[in-house]
Design a protein that fits this description.
Distance between the termini: 52 Å
Strand order of the largest sheet: 1-2
Structural class: mainly alpha
Helix content: 40-55%
Largest sheet: 2 strands, antiparallel
Order of helices and strands: EEHHHHHHEEHHEEHH
Number of strands: 6
């Protein structure tokens, strides 16, 4: 199989190395992108938690730190389990997450469970912590996805589009000729996640949905984005009934999130149909919580 990028106007060059050199230090670019994404998410989530009067930055920092640790472990385990054929004869490669291979569904599950458990310790409801974290998660993903660019992995099928991604011969899939360019699925996900983040912030500011809804909206948005990128990817992956496991997972998460939004809306209507859809309309306030009407990001200094 080959592809000739005839008429190609431009393309995204492949990185010369998967490492970043800062003086004598040699850092994994993949790990650096993940770390920068985590820092960005922690900043936004902490800012939102304080601006809403629901908690402190220190509480959010603790929740974020342990959620990230759990998320990395969960995402690595998900990747290994769903791509077991690559690891069953190379068990020593399982811990090498810095080489690439983090399954976001596993990270979301593990990170959410730990985040909710810690938030309860601080007297913050699960719905509220989910609300402040909802836009922060796609922000982290938007930054972290650039790690795939540096590792030259998880790209899509061949394309002649002007923004086609160049892949060097060392990372070129079998059957493709040098010079072939591919769909930059990392870029599609990065830009898509930035859009999701912006939309969630706008929805929270303008519509002030009931606490918890924003996280479900994130899941709807990201699952839809993931269905698109999975349809383009050509990297080896386990399949069920001809579809990639991640495609099935995205469809399940999309369906469950939409169903939960409908169920919770109807539940709120039954409680008090004349009351605005807010956290306080159907749930008792957390001790020490502030106004729901605060700006979702905050106008004061960071």
């Amino acid at each position: 199989m080959s592809f000739s990028p005839a008429g190609l106007i431009a393309s995204i060059p492949s990185p010369g190395s998967g490492s970043l050199h800062i003086g004598p230090l040699k850092l994994s670019a993949y790990g650096m992108m993940i770390a920068l994404g985590v820092l960005a998410a922690g900043w936004l989530a902490g800012r939102r938690l304080v601006s809403k009067g629901w908690g402190t930055r220190d509480q959010m920092a603790s929740i974020t730190t342990w959620s990230v640790v759990a998320g990395v472990i969960g995402s690595r385990l998900y990747h290994v389990i769903t791509d077991w054929s690559r690891y069953k004869n190379n068990l020593g490669d399982i811990p090498k997450a810095w080489q690439g291979g983090l399954g976001i569904p596993g990270g979301l599950i593990a990170g959410t469970v730990v985040g909710i458990a810690l938030s309860k310790r601080y007297g913050i409801s699960a719905r509220r912590i989910a609300t402040v974290a909802a836009p922060a998660i796609p922000l982290a993903q938007a930054v972290g996805r650039w790690g795939n660019y540096w590792n030259q992995e998880l790209f899509g099928r061949a394309t002649g589009l002007p923004w086609g991604l160049e892949i060097d011969e060392r990372h070129l899939p079998a059957g493709f000729t040098p010079g072939t360019t591919f769909h930059p699925t990392f870029l599609y996900e990065s830009l898509g996640n930035l859009l999701i983040c912006a939309l969630l912030l706008l929805i929270d500011r303008r519509l002030k949905p009931r606490a918890g809804w924003l996280f479900a909206m994130y899941l709807v948005g990201y699952s839809s984005l993931r269905l698109f990128t999975e349809s383009l990817r050509i990297d080896p992956a386990n399949e069920i009934a001809g579809l990639r496991v991640n495609t099935w997972m995205s469809m399940i998460v999309l369906a469950v999130s939409l169903a939960w939004l409908v169920w919770d809306w109807r539940r709120g209507e039954r409680h008090d149909p004349a009351t605005p859809a807010s956290d306080t309309a159907v749930h008792s306030a957390d001790p020490g919580s502030g106004s729901e009407e605060a700006d979702p990001v905050g106008d004061g200094p960071a």
